[in-house]
Amino acid sequence: MIKNIKLVIVDVDGVLTDGTIYVDSQGCEIKAFSVLDGTGISYLHRAGIKTAIISGRTCDAVIHRAKELGIEDVYQGAKDKIDAYGKIMEKYALRDEEVCYIGDDLIDLPILHRVGFPVAVANASPIVKCQSDYVTKARGGHGAVREVAEKILKFQDKWHLIMERYDIRNLIYKEKKCEF
């Protein structure tokens, strides 16, 4: 369940991106990543929750983005994602129920069936949505990872760790009465 999550693993195409693949005239692949998702990943790290990437495709842009975000565990070209998942689980000595996985397509199903908090993005395949405990309102590449990060942090009562940095928690509560 959400309160036990210590690791969030994400797919790339369709989750960290909108699934569009850009190829320039030299054949180089270009990906567009959402700043919202990057911020959500940073929030997870700040609250002590690890993150990892498992992707069926391989692209240098993913390595660059992961490095920017401080994601240490990146598995690309993973046609059998369960193998990469097993390596991450062994490295951190975690139990399945301590992991959230965010996916969008059939290749993600084996991991989604194992983790404690399986999540599908809004644009996921219908069967992936059906097999997930939560379906984001945001589409992949448009803040879906950020949405999940906030949900986990709020449920674990760690959202204050994020808000305190901006010294606006009391202001928001008093003047706007926003929900957290």
TrEMBL record:
The keyword Magnesium applies. InterPro entries: CMP-NeuNAc_synthase, HAD-like_sf, HAD-SF_hydro_IIIA, HAD_sf, KdsC_fam. It comes from the Bacteria. Its cofactor is Mg(2+). Keywords: Hydrolase, Magnesium, Metal-binding. CDD domains: HAD_KDO-like. The keyword Hydrolase applies. Coiled coil: none annotated. Pfam families: Hydrolase_3. Homotetramer. PANTHER family: HAD SUPERFAMILY MEMBERS CMAS AND KDSC, N-ACYLNEURAMINATE CYTIDYLYLTRANSFERASE. Belongs to the KdsC family. This is 3-deoxy-D-manno-octulosonate 8-phosphate phosphatase. The lineage of its organism: Bacteria, Pseudomonadati, Planctomycetota, Candidatus Brocadiia, Candidatus Brocadiales.
